[in-house]
Amino acid sequence: MFFSLLSQARPVTTLCTETDDELLHELDTALATDKEWLTTCNIGEMMPGALTPLSQSVFAQAIEEALQNIHVSWGLLPSSATPTMKNLGVYSGCCFINLHTMSNTYENNVLISSKKVNELGLCGKVLDDLTWEMIKEHNGQASLWRRMNNGLKVIQYLWSGRHRLDELESLLLTFDLERKSSATEMYTTISESLSFYYYAWDTHMLFSAKSGMWSSTLVSVLCRNVDDLTTDMSSDMSLLLSACSGVVSADVPSALERLADIIVCENGVESCRAFVNCNPEEALNWLHSTDCSAANLCFQQFLDKHGHRCLREAEFAVKPWGADPSKLMPPLQTLVQHRIDAQSHDIHVSCGSSVQSCGNGLLDSRLSVGAVEEGIHWTETQKLENQDDEFDQIFAKLKIKLSWMKRKFIKWMLPKCREAVRQREKGKISVVCLVSHLL
Q1: Residue 386 per-residue DSSP state
Q2: According to DSSP H, which parts of 9-143 are helical?
Q3: Which of 12-21, 104-113, 348-357 has the highest average model confidence (pLDDT)?
Q4: Terminal C-alpha separation, the chain
């Protein structure tokens, strides 16, 4: 017996089927042309990897508006930002900077700007393939009077904004996201708080732009032509900015190093090996045990000061260290392992100063931002008294020779470069604290 089976495949049933490529690029940002350059430089360090849809619609939009506000302040855009994505784009879930749009800030529109210096600060190298013809085709060429006027606005921008940072910190101290009983009310409360979130990122980007501009100016002083930038000049640039004190986030690696020293000194080698071989949850419980009283107290101090931070800290789906301390265990276990290996090779591990510095700060387990800043201010005051000696020591270590005029100019400019770095990091810490409040 034979059977005949008939199947029906009408075209209308396959018209709306989405391809894998369409699904992958479903939330991509639209481009004005098919000739625009995109890069993950800078933004890839701030937010590496793919973003969740929530972060794409909130974080990416906040950065975009902040960048547009910078262009407005420099006279490059009308008096209000637009909701469309121009400077930042999201493709395959990852953030990119639009180099064609960012090139609007070059010397074709701002007299005191420089394509080469800006590209060096953003990408770490000069993009010769991104030619002036491509930039002018996309952004046009402003008149000399307009470029001079925009240059004056940039100079004014450099000296503005200090009150914004103080205002942001004051608002952060009083910010409290009220918990609601229903999801609808909670959604409304969070939406009403987003204006503060946007303002925080706008403040951070303001100081980030200022820091980049001061650093770019310092590069211009060190070398007459950016094309002549050598390894020695890059090394000297790092040396000039390396002594920037008061950057709270820079204390994270050294604080973990001190904690590892205390763990090794407080416990025997076998106990430390057991800690290294634990999974993160077990390692955290071990650290909280009574056998690690000093290390546990030092760890709590670390969380009090840096618990609002983590890797990819601007991503809403990622829990900060304070909410999930087990994330800190793998790097801490690696540091302890290094110290065990050092002891096995008869390399002495000093821990007296680590224990003392940690113990002295643990009596006040909650460090406020004001207390930290007061300590920073005291340190800077002490350094200013010996600033000439400090500059002489730095100039003696530089690999390139500086004229008398350049030395005087760097002495005037370097404190401003360092202060811009401190303000940038201070603004970022405030934003990350706000994000932890919203979670």
Answers
A1: T
A2: 20-24, 43-46, 53-73, 99-102, 115-123, 132-139
A3: 104-113
A4: 68
- CA torsion sign, 197 to 199 to 204 to 209? positive
If we measure between CA atoms, which residue out of 256, 251, 249, 254 comes closest to residue 333? 256
What's this model's pTM, rounded to 2 decimal places? 0.77
Rounded Cα gap, residues 15 and 24, in angstroms? 19
CB-CB contact of 168 with 203 (8 Å):
yes
Instruction: Identify any residues that bridge with 88 across adjacent strands, giving them in sequence order.
Output: 97
Q: What is the pLDDT of residues 201-231, one digit of tens each?
A: 998 888 888 888 888 778 777 776 555 566 6
Single-letter amino acid, residue 406: K
Q: Alpha-carbon distance 165 to 176, whole Å? A: 19
The better pLDDT of the pair 104, 247 is held by: 104
| Rounded Cα–Cα distance for residues 33 and 12 (Å) | 33
Q: Is pLDDT at 238 greater than 50 in this prediction?
A: yes
Strand order, beta sheet including 38-39? 38-39, 94-98, 88-91
DSSP 49: S
Q: What confidence category does residue 383 fall into, taking pLDDT thresholds of 50, 70 and 90?
A: very low
